[in-house]
Amino acid sequence: MTQIEFNYKPNSKPTQCYRILRHLKLYKSITDLEALRDYGIRRLSARIHELRKEHTIDDCWIIGENRFGEKTKWKKYIMEGK
What we know:
alpha+beta
């Protein structure tokens, strides 16, 4: 795995934005479900809004089915690597 630089002080508590940014840099994308399941973050769009002030983060709609077989869509946030 590539070493990625993060602005994080070891003796402080990581913020939600830090966790999302780390995830995006490592995995290139994140959805609401991943943010909730992996980090307990319920308002991903709000954190993405904050991160977009300093980072380029794109998004796209994913269309699929829910557990009842009904058509639904959700956002996927994407950060391209350099």
